[in-house]
């Protein structure tokens, strides 16, 4: 057991050794305001303990402000908490041994990954071999590879189907395997499809019937009607004029409406109309002839691609050109002397057109029949080539061997993965049997529920660590999402639970000899303080461990030390700091918290402004002042002191404060108590805190002198 610090130096402790009247005992309660050196003395106690060669870090437990980050938080996690684990009794140890044995039997992921990589590589090699056979056997034929997204098994099945389809055309495997693809038929099909169409410009039947009438009709000479071409010329020229213009050819006066009327009269003339129809027939005969000449030019190309048998059809078409030419001549003769009677070969025209149309039809039919046959051959050849490719793939020894190797390795891979899954399940079952982490999650969640905190602790998916959840919304939280008080409470529960070797918290782990708890109730609500104080009292009742509990709260110190002043097992000490140097002093717990705090503020108010430069706990006083102000006001006025916006007017009214100077000082006191007691920031002014302490003491002295005289140090 540690009885003293020996020549301890750390921060404000300088070469400090406990005097003989201030020795540590089995149970130690230390009081000291923040900044006095509580955390430093905790380090000194730990270091003194570890000076003994027989003592190890596992023999002590320390709870301090860094406990969460140093002991609980998982590395590389978003605020998850480490699981509290211990093997309770022989059953837990046996389970742990089984878990370790099973973990050794789990095949490493990198070994499984390597096997998976080998399988992938083999599959790629098989697919490469299949594609090589495909490309070589198809030649120039347009036969696509199987989809790259298909598995090799599926690809082989597709080629097997191709082989079965080919067998319907060629049953002999020996003949089939010799077939290779080419694009000769495809080229021939393409050439035939690209042959120019044989378009014949036909003569309109209604026009022929009209012209037949003209050839039968008699036309006398009509000198009053100009020639057809003259009428056309005049009509064209008239389009360049408008009413009122002079003639654009001779610049003489032009009777526009008269000329227009005469042209209309000329065009209604029978002879003029007949000439127009004859000219239309001549133009259509000429176009008919031109289309024959174009068709005639395709004779050689068609014969080359389709065959010589169609040459006779092209010859028949060529022979008809002279007939059409003679008919064009007959038509022109009639135009030139329409009044002369003559014959026109209408039957010859019909017969000639029929011969030409039949020849063109025969040529087109021959072309289409040949295309159909070529396409059929192409389809058959494609089927045979695909079948030959499939047959070679099915016969390939390389593909068979690699495929067998893939199957064997995949069976091996599946067995390894199933083995790992089985072992993981067995380990999971064992962990659930062990149920250590779940015990703690249930333990903490029950406590949080009992003290009305809307938090719970649940097992993470790994069943080894914890996540924090909101009990109201069941939302997952992190350490950063909860308040300082909630965080400290969780940390202390973790710390307390881990001390014990059983899940009922009855038997402390025998390896633990020293327990140090530094400020366990920091930033906690009043409802949580009571529970934590009870935990600390339980620790102080432990029989075989030396305990140190440190607090900055006088209330907590009084609660913990109550009834222990004359107990030889306990010692109660205060950590003080004077002129920047910390020491230990005797401390009694008999004085009530209010009395102690009143005297503390009284002594602070009596200090000079110069003393403030060395006052290390200046920022502790606003909270103490607030407590004194609240308690004194409560029993003086009979109501709670609520720091609301109208508080100052309320106090001014109760105590009859009327001067502006007193109102200003009261306002400063309220500001210091209300703001500085709840936050720490750069706006704190030591001088304002000191002035407010002076005013508070003066206010109590003025308004309640009897109380003031009884509370101040005698």
From TrEMBL:
Superkingdom of the source?
Bacteria
> Which UniProt keywords are present, listed alphabetically?
Coiled coil
SUPFAM superfamilies listed in its UniProt record: P-loop containing nucleoside triphosphate hydrolases (SSF52540)
UniProt xrefs under InterPro entries:
CR006_AAA (IPR026866), P-loop_NTPase (IPR027417)
Which positions fall inside the Protein CR006 P-loop domain? Answer: 18-686
- The keyword Electron transport belongs to this UniProt entry's keyword annotation: no
State the coiled-coil residue ranges.
264-298, 364-433
Protein name (record): AAA family ATPase
Q: Which organism is it from?
A: Gelidibacter pelagius
